[in-house]
């Protein structure tokens, strides 16, 4: 109970900070929405060649994962500001659990991602997406898990670098291959065989395919198994890294 109470206190403070300045939430939501309206129609002739009847049923899951990954990757920038202002050190001298300091922030990020996901899915249905409710629920849950993993990794990276100038290029270096090799925008089957082989080693590719498969109403096959395994594995690893970083005496 103490851990939950401490996590809630941190979450409540972080949520209040976001509500005072919702610019990052709006900016994070604007990019996938623009992709949905401007890039989605261009996919219709491409996905038709792949035997997919509805372009948005294919495209919205990819945008959902993109929202979870890229939005969460920037969570650490606010943490650097808190560290510079002495907030992190003030929290660390309290008897609060170091895990609660991270979990409270992750809860804020997950709640924010959940609201954005609801908006994105709602727009997808408005544009003609066809997806069963249970498939959407499972896809959103996978996205929240991956988003929490990316947010935890971002927080850990922020406390490790303690500099926006260092963190920004690192994130950009990670985001580019993820965007190109995970099949978020275009299916990897359109690429050459060597490119498909490389993308098989990209964990996010399996997550994207798992979310896409769930939106199609298919809960069987390797994509669902490996996508779920990678999502859970990334979450556990990232939370461990984030908690360990918060526990460091020199953090």
TrEMBL record:
GO terms for biological process: response to antibiotic. The chain crosses the membrane at residues 21-43, 55-80, 110-130, 136-158, 170-190, 223-242. Pfam families: ABC2_membrane. The lineage of its organism: Bacteria, Bacillati, Actinomycetota, Actinomycetes, Micrococcales. This is Transport permease protein. GO terms for molecular function: ABC-type transporter activity. Signal peptide: none annotated. It is a multi-pass membrane protein. It is found in: Cell membrane; Membrane. One of its GO terms (cellular component) is ATP-binding cassette (ABC) transporter complex. Keywords: Antibiotic resistance, Cell membrane, Membrane, Transmembrane, Transmembrane helix, Transport. PROSITE patterns: ABC_TM2 (PS51012). Residues 23-249 form the ABC transmembrane type-2 domain. Belongs to the ABC-2 integral membrane protein family. It comes from the Bacteria.
